[in-house]
Write a structure and sequence with these properties.
The complex is a heterodimer.
Chain A lengths: L1 H20 L14 E3 L12 H16 L8 H8 L7 E2 H10 L3 E4 L4 H9 L4 E6 L8 E10 L4 E4 L7 E4 H9 L5 E5 L10 H13 L3 H14 L4 H13 L3 H14 L4 H13 L3 H8 L7 H15 L11
Antiparallel strand pairs in A: 1-5, 3-8, 4-5, 4-8, 5-6, 6-7
Helix pairs in contact in A: 2-3, 7-8, 7-9, 8-9, 9-10, 10-11, 11-12, 11-13, 12-13
Chain B lengths: L4 H14 L21 H20 L4 H10 L2 H10 L5 E2 L4 H19 L14
Classes of the chains: A alpha+beta, B mainly alpha.
Chain lengths: ~325, ~130
């Protein structure tokens, strides 16, 4: 009877092994990437339940070591902001929120292995969420990926208590898949993710602005403009950010730049009019708002309100609220 | 652990002021949303989401002094996601410690299946059947 159990166990194990051996036969690393990459990310030893915090800490001190960036939060603050005791860990949203509070832009990379390699190649460490268990018994863990080696077919990670642990790519892919290939790059606002699309990057930069870090957001918008100089959305976000910080000359410059690309953009026309009105150039404000027109009822109602304000001599309100 | 309503409303008044814009000019938010500005209904939903997040954090034994900062650090979208999906969201934790948990877990599963008579791993169990 006991022997019977062992046979079953053996069969089960054999099935598992065979199953594991059936992972993709396609080449794991395509030829478009460099043969290897190794990022010098300072290693931080694990602290109980705090891999979210230590991951942010490691990536932050990496940027601190190669750029003028200075972290805003202490190790203690990182811990206190990320841990949820009842969950025994850190949620993705709070990992992102804490990284931002630490002065970094948090950008979720596209969920592909290729996107991960692109970032590593460009010396951007990526914090990945892995499930070391199974879907029915998850053991969630964050760790920074800090490089890869094509020849050995490994990903380098500060996975646990040793730096630069080489993890077999097939294994890594299996663990990573279970989190839906979730990975995030944390960057000083001067840097752009390799895999960024204008809209997705703008979203991350705007998240900085919304959570009280407008100055960092402005830097991020400006670096985005270097890659996408004619992107209307980025120009609008940058102009608005300057407008909100009462830097009217800079704001005007970027509203006008946007309007040189899209002369009838109603949102830019409206905001520029508001700005001109605010700095006492009422006639110009009126001329500008007259060009604004929109099918969208809500936009049109804003335009009407601005027009009314200008007609009233721009006295209705002072600066735009934050 | 209890937290006074006063503290909660204080937290929320601060986070609300730092976030959703009530400005006259067209907001950058317009880029991401179909609608130009947030309707007052949206604002109320976001307000409640933040209130919920604060409550959940309290229930989950988070240090009360940190709650204000943690709620404020989230965007509206993150706060809604947090409030709505807290039960299913993964929380990344230990690299090593949980493994012990896994062993205990498997032990318990086998113990139960033993007791139900589905397995016979341990000598000290007797099936209930």
């Amino acid at each position: 009877m006991k022997g019977n159990f062992h046979i079953h166990l053996l069969l089960a194990l054999a099935t598992l092994l065979i199953y594991s051996g059936c992972a993709s036969k396609e080449p794991l690393l395509s030829t478009e990437h460099d043969t290897s990459s190794s990022i010098k990310v300072p290693f931080v030893a694990p602290r109980s339940d705090l891999c979210g915090s230590t991951s942010i800490e490691m990536v932050s001190s990496y940027w601190q070591s190669i750029t003028p960036y200075t972290p805003r939060l202490s190790q203690k603050e990182l811990d206190a902001r990320t841990l949820i005791p009842a969950k025994g860990g850190t949620l993705q949203v709070e990992l992102m929120a804490t990284a931002r509070a630490n002065g970094l832009l948090a950008y979720t990379i596209p969920p592909t292995f290729d996107a991960l390699l692109h970032e590593l190649e460009k010396q951007h460490p990526v914090i990945v969420l892995l499930n070391r268990g199974y879907s029915w018994y998850p053991l969630w863990h964050y760790a920074p990926a800090v490089g890869y080696n094509k020849k050995d077919q490994t990903i380098l990670m500060h996975f646990s208590d040793r730096p630069n642990e080489a993890i077999n790519i097939a294994t890594f892919k299996r663990l990573w898949e279970r989190s839906g290939n979730w990975g995030v790059v944390l960057l000083p606002p001067e840097y752009l993710p390799v895999s960024a699309s204008p809209k997705a990057f703008l979203r991350s930069a705007y998240d900085l602005e919304k959570t009280g870090m407008r100055d960092n957001a402005i830097i991020a918008y400006k670096s985005a403009l270097q890659r996408w100089p004619k992107d209307i959305d980025i120009l609008f976000a940058l102009a608005n950010a300057y407008h909100h910080s009462n830097k009217f000359t800079a704001a005007e410059k970027y509203y006008r730049k946007l309007l040189s690309i899209e002369p009838l953009n109603p949102l830019a026309l409206n905001n520029l009019s508001d700005l001109l009105c605010h700095i006492g150039r009422q006639n110009e404000a009126m001329a500008t708002i007259k060009k604004a027109d929109s099918d969208n009822i809500e936009i049109q109602s804003i335009i009407n309100a601005t027009q009314k304000k200008i007609l009233n001599g721009c006295t209705l309100q002072a600066s735009p609220k934050k | 652990m209890n937290i006074s309503k006063l503290l909660l409303s204080f937290i929320l008044s601060i986070t609300l002021l730092t976030q959703t814009s009530w400005a006259q000019i067209a907001s950058t938010e317009a880029i991401f949303k179909q609608a130009e500005t947030l309707s007052s209904k949206d604002k109320i939903i976001q307000f409640t989401a933040r209130q919920d997040v604060a409550k959940i954090l309290v229930q989950m034994d988070v240090e009360p002094t940190m709650i204000k900062d943690r709620v404020a650090a989230m965007t509206d979208e993150e706060a809604s996601k947090f409030a709505n999906e807290i039960d299913t969201m993964p929380a990344g934790g230990d690299a090593v410690g949980a493994l012990v948990g896994a062993v205990v877990f498997i032990f318990v599963v086998l113990l139960i299946t033993d007791i139900l008579g589905l397995t016979k791993v341990f000598d000290f169990t007797r099936t209930v059947r």
